Amino acid sequence: MSINKNNKKSVWESTIHASQAKLKQLTQLWSIQTLTDLPDRLRNLWQWLIGSYWFIPTACVIVGILLAPLLVTIDQHFDRETVREISFAFTGDDDAARAIMTAIAGAVLGVAGTTFSITIAVLSMASSQFGPRLLRNFLTDTPNQFVLGAFIGTFSYSLLVLKSIHKYDVSFGVPQLAVTFAIIMAIICALLLVYFVQHMVHAIQASHVIQNASNDAILNIDYWYDDQCDIQHQRDTEHHDIEQFHHWSATPIYSPQTGYLQQIYLESLITLSQDYGGVVQMHVNLGEYVTDKNVIGYFYQRPAGHPNNQQKTATPHLAVIPRAPDGLFWQRFTGCVRLEQRLAHSNDIAYSLGQMTEIAVRALSPGINDPKTAVNCVQSLTSCLSIMMRRQPPSPYHFYIPQPEAHISQSDDSVTSDAIEPERLAILALVTHTPTISDFIDVSIGEIRRYAAADLMVLKALCQAMVNLNYARVNQAQQQTLLHELNLIQRAGEDNLSYPELITDLTAMCEQAKQFILDDDAQHKHFDYISEFAADIRQALQMQSS
């Protein structure tokens, strides 16, 4: 018996110790410093909720469930004579109230089923015409969710009010205000049905889908790119650790799991680097697929003689001495990145641009054969890329500045704080992989070019896009990127167009575009391409008129 008691005691103690260890790890993982990325984490949670089709309808059902007993309670304390003075209020008996609530509940439930069927049909058509990645844009359409939620919420409200109608209840009577509100909601649901049909007709139009994808891309550009250029990049490149950290002791960082990289929490990674006294360099970007065996980065530990490796009491630079990654490091790193098994919406610019690219590629397929839609996608991509070319790209280098110390000196019985503190230098903590404008042009414009090699209309639209992007360029590197893409467009047309006249037309436009881009004053001029055939016709008409 004593052995069993000792065994039970040891098991209980081991369970308590294990629970305490887990709680301690959880506290360390979700420290105050780690929660500096709380806005990004909450935004991801909100995007996940909005991306689910059940969130808004469920909220509407909850509102209906709460409104029913609230209005019934108000009815119990409301003067009946005052209700009869309201012209549009319901003043019938319990049988009439029960019939009205039954009719409303049955009607809105049937209409809800109809709207759900229409939504499924639209999703099926959008998946085949625009691509499966565009389905989220339809699922996250707030008006669609709200219309369905209004129908289901009205149904839930009507059932609960119907339950509260008691026959021969002299003390209470009929909930006249609750029934009146149900009638008003039924009229609103009828109007919402008309709005839903009109909204879905516009939602399935290609121009509307392209515009929504373009707006999504612009929001992501605003998230990453600054509105105005500054000298932060120059300060970054002058930092002494940028050229030296590659020579430090490196530890490979493996992916926590297999999936698509959806989010990198920068502040959490900076805090992690700060606590372990090193630099984390990420070699993957958002949207990339990695396995649990992939090396996605390295942790570079500062050498022992580094000037920032002093104790906090001696200098306000680094607060800890560098140490090698341990088990807690890998647990914290798992919370610094978010990987999903499927590619979903995030603040990835390439993902947003890829939506328009996918629409254009599908429009060029033999089954759809809609080059005009592809041209519209090229124009929307040009608008997004021109915004990126004019703005300051995000810096790959991320620093942190240690918190100031309170230098306290005590004389007699008073405590004073020194006002002068040593200068605190920024310490390199994180290096990310930042795509350039040439990378975005290749995954968007370049992808369309490879599928539109035999379509003169789309190739000329791509050539015009390079001219339009030239108005937004700010350096010579962007100019060389545009010229390189023009050479590829010309090469694609020469190798795939069917007739020599079409090749001549495209070649002439590309050559004129190159000369225009190389012109130093091109951003103050208008580019107007006129084919040789059109020029001859214009000259002949002028000679005839003279």
SSE inventory with pairings:
Blueprint: H1 2-29, H2 38-51, H3 55-76, H4 80-84, H5 94-129, H6 135-139, H7 142-163, H8 176-203, H9 206-224, H10 232-237, E1 249-254, E2 259-264, H11 266-276, E3 278-282, E4 289-290, E5 295-301, H12 327-334, E6 337-340, H13 349-363, H14 371-390, E7 397-400, E8 408-411, E9 414-417, E10 427-431, H15 437-451, H16 456-470, H17 476-496, H18 500-518, H19 532-545
Helix pairs in contact: 3-7, 5-7, 5-8, 7-8, 9-13, 9-14, 13-14, 13-15, 14-15, 14-16, 15-17, 16-17, 16-18, 17-18
Describe the fold and architecture:
Strand 8 (408-411) and strand 9 form a beta hairpin. This protein is flat. Helices cover 59% and strands 9% of the residues. It has helices at 2-29, 38-51, 55-76, 80-84, 94-129, 135-139, 142-163, 176-203, 206-224, 232-237, 266-276, 327-334, 349-363, 371-390, 437-451, 456-470, 476-496, 500-518, 532-545; strands at 249-254, 259-264, 278-282, 289-290, 295-301, 337-340, 397-400, 408-411, 414-417, 427-431. The chain has 546 residues and is of the alpha+beta class.
Proportion of residues in extended strands: 5-15%
Strand order of the largest sheet: 1-5-3-10-7
Poorly predicted runs are: 311-318, 406-424
| Termini gap | 122 Å
Main β-sheet, in a few words?
5 strands, mixed
- Inertia-based shape: flat
